[in-house]
Amino acid sequence: MQRIEHMSLWERLYFPEIIRGLFVTGYHFWRNLAIHTLHLFGLAKNKSAAITVQYPEERIAYPDTFRGRHRLTLKDDGSVHCTACFLCSTACPAECIYIEAGEYPENPVEKFPVRYEIDTLRCIYCGFCVEACPCDAIRMDTGLHPGNLGFSRQDFVEDKKVLTERSRKLEEKGKEELYDEAVDRYRQD
Fold first, then answer.
1. Which of 24, 91, 147, 180 is the residue whose CA sits 20 to 30 A from 103?
2. Is the pTM of this model over 0.85?
3. What angle in degrees, to the nearest 10, is found between the helix axes of 175-183 and 160-173?
């Protein structure tokens, strides 16, 4: 990439650039207003204009590839699939996953996470942890976007209990009901 070192006098004045930016903004505003007005009268159906979604009362559905809040998947007996292999925490560029491994008393060969925490303030929601997991123990398919979980740093650390409970709720209720439950506190009555 080549950097532009010299600006012309016209560009250095900035005022013409501000006027040019206002023209671009004005063009889009008046174009969208005209097209929406024509749509009201049944005209210009082949042209599309920008729309405003009144979030959270209305929403556009997230695509299947949306990376939302994390969850730990569960086995049929209710225990986590995670084998505490540390691949997710190793792959995490933000270093926000903390795992403490333990062994099952009846099967000392197999490990499980005694402590599994994700610091959501550090997390960049890249999905590397999901890709690195060999046993499909962690997923980001809840359809929930990161939200305000509290007012202290500790409120933003999601532990094993929160992550497994999110998986149980997703199985019971489905994505839509889980989403509605999460945004109910933001909706106006």
1. 91
2. no
3. 120
